[in-house]
Amino acid sequence: MITSAQRKEGDDLERVYDEAEHIFVRLQKLSWFGGINLACLAAIRGREEETEKWLRKCYDDNHLEPEHLEDGDFDRYRQKDWFLELVEQLEAKEDQN
Q: Cα separation of 84 and 80, whole Å?
């Protein structure tokens, strides 16, 4: 059973996540830092499609580094086909350099 205190805490957390997302979207227009943080935030929230979208955008914009994918926020997606494909693409790109 979810208590009203737990519900309020969940609502407060979602509000903070929404505020962070708004800031990261603005930051993404100025720096690579926003995109990777949007991917992390989406992963924390369990939003797989958004996580993949932001990671692919970071990759396409040449802002994705192998250590970014090691972040624990992405643990739930490590065995997903799209994540494994992204790791392979990143490794291949690194081998070319």
A: 6
SS3 1: coil
Contact 10, 26 (CB under 8 A): no
At 43-71, the pLDDT tens digits run 999 999 999 999 999 999 999 999 999 99
Sequence letter at residue 63: H
| CB-CB contact of 28 with 35 (8 Å) | yes
Place of tokens 């958004």: 50
Please tell me the predicted confidence (pLDDT) of residue 82.
98
Rounded distance between C-alpha atoms, residue 73 and residue 34, angstroms: 15
